[in-house]
Write a structure and sequence with these properties.
Strands 4, 5, 6, 7, 8 and 10 form a six-stranded mixed β-sheet that branches. The chain has a two-stranded antiparallel ribbon with strand order 1-2. Strands 3-9 form a two-stranded parallel sheet. It contains nine helices and ten strands. Helices cover about 35% and strands about 20% of the residues. The longest helix has 23 residues. It has about 270 residues and is α+β, with helices and mostly antiparallel strands. Strand 5 and strand 6 form a beta hairpin. One of its GO terms (molecular function) is zinc ion binding. Belongs to the BCD1 family. One of its GO terms (biological process) is maturation of LSU-rRNA from tricistronic rRNA transcript (SSU-rRNA, 5.8S rRNA, LSU-rRNA). Interacts with FBL, SNU13, NOP58, NUFIP1, RUVBL1, RUVBL2 and TAF9. Interacts (via HIT-type zinc finger) with the RUVBL1/RUVBL2 complex in the presence of ADP.
C-alpha cells in the first residue's frame, strides 16, 4: 500500500495508479492528491504501452463524442437565428480586438454557463471569468468582469493582504501570506497536444483585454493563480528553453484538452 506502507495492496486507483489496501487508504490518497479516482480517458499513452484495451477505450470515447455532437446538433436552440446572430457578433467583436474567441456547441457545460456579453454603447466586453487557485484547491467564478479592469484589481478581493474578503482570505491564506512578487497568473494555451501543455504568463498590471489579445479563448478565460515557489509541472511558454514565447504553433492540435473535458462532462 502506497498510503500506509503497512498492508498488502488490494486496489489500484484508475486515475493515478496508486496502490491501496483498504477503503480508508483509498479515501486518504484521494484527499492527499486531490484525486477523483476516475480514469482519464484522454491521458497520453506512448506507443510502447498501447494495448488492445486502450484501443477499445479510445473507440468508445469517440462513440461518446459522436453521440454528444449529434444531440447538440438536434438541440432546438442550436438552430435559433437569434442565438447564432449573438454568437457571431460576439466572436466578430473579439476578432476586432485580436482575440480568437471560440464557442462550443449547445449542450456543452462551458456553453451553458458562459455569460460573456459585449456592450455596444460602451464598446466593452463584460467577461465570464474563472479563477483557479491550485495550491488551495479553490475555484471561483466571476460574471460581468469589464475588460478594462486590471488583473491586480480582479484578484484584490481574493489575495490582497489588506483588502481581501475575510472568507476568501481564510481559504487562500497561503496566497495572502506570500509576497505579491511570488504570485503568477497563468492561462493555458489552447489547441495543443495532450502531452504538451503550456501556459502563458499574464501581466497583473495590465487590463484583462490587453492580456487576452493574441490568444485563443474557448468560451471564456480561465486563469490559474500560482506561486512561483510551489508550482509544479506548469511549463510557461518561452521559459522552458525549447519553444518561443508565442503561441503560433498551438494551432496544430485537433481537440484541446478543455474541449475533451467538456465532452466527458456532457
Amino acid at each position: 500500500c502506497e498510503t500506509c506502507s503497512k498492508e498488502e495492496a488490494k486496489y489500484r486507483c484508475p486515475r493515478c495508479m496508486k496502490y491501496s489496501c483498504s477503503l480508508l487508504c483509498v479515501k486518504k490518497h484521494k484527499l492527499a492528491l486531490s484525486c477523483n479516482g476516475v480514469r482519464d480517458k484522454t491521458a497520453f499513452i506512448s506507443v510502447n504501452e498501447f494495448t488492445d484495451l486502450n484501443l477499445l477505450s479510445d473507440y468508445r470515447f469517440l462513440e461518446d463524442v459522436g453521440r454528444t455532437a449529434d444531440a447538440a446538433a438536434r438541440h432546438p436552440t442550436m438552430h435559433s437565428p437569434t442565438t447564432k446572430k449573438l454568437l457571431y457578433c460576439l466572436r466578430n467583436r473579439a476578432r476586432k480586438c485580436n482575440i480568437d474567441l471560440r464557442t462550443l456547441p449547445v449542450g456543452f457545460t462551458k456553453r451553458r454557463e458562459n455569460t460573456t456579453t459585449f456592450n455596444c454603447m460602451e464598446k466593452k466586453f463584460y467577461w465570464h471569468l474563472k479563477l483557479l487557485f491550485p495550491h488551495c484547491h479553490a475555484e471561483y467564478t466571476l460574471k460581468g468582469v469589464p475588460d478594462d479592469k486590471t488583473l491586480a484589481d480582479i484578484l484584490k478581493p481574493y489575495i490582497d493582504p489588506v483588502e481581501s474578503d475575510p472568507v476568501f482570505c481564510q481559504r487562500l491564506r497561503i496566497y495572502t501570506m506570500s509576497p505579491q512578487s511570488d504570485v503568477q497568473i497563468l492561462m493555458k494555451i489552447e489547441n495543443r497536444k495532450q502531452n504538451s501543455i503550456r501556459y502563458n504568463e499574464l501581466d497583473a498590471s495590465r487590463s484583462l483585454l490587453d492580456n487576452l489579445k493574441g490568444k485563443i479563448i474557448i468560451e471564456y478565460p480561465t486563469l490559474f493563480v500560482v506561486l512561483k515557489t510551489l508550482k509544479k509541472d506548469m511549463v510557461i511558454l518561452g521559459q522552458d528553453g525549447n519553444e518561443p514565447a508565442d503561441n503560433s504553433d498551438s494551432e496544430s492540435s485537433s481537440l484541446s484538452s478543455v474541449e475533451e473535458g467538456e465532452i466527458r462532462d456532457s
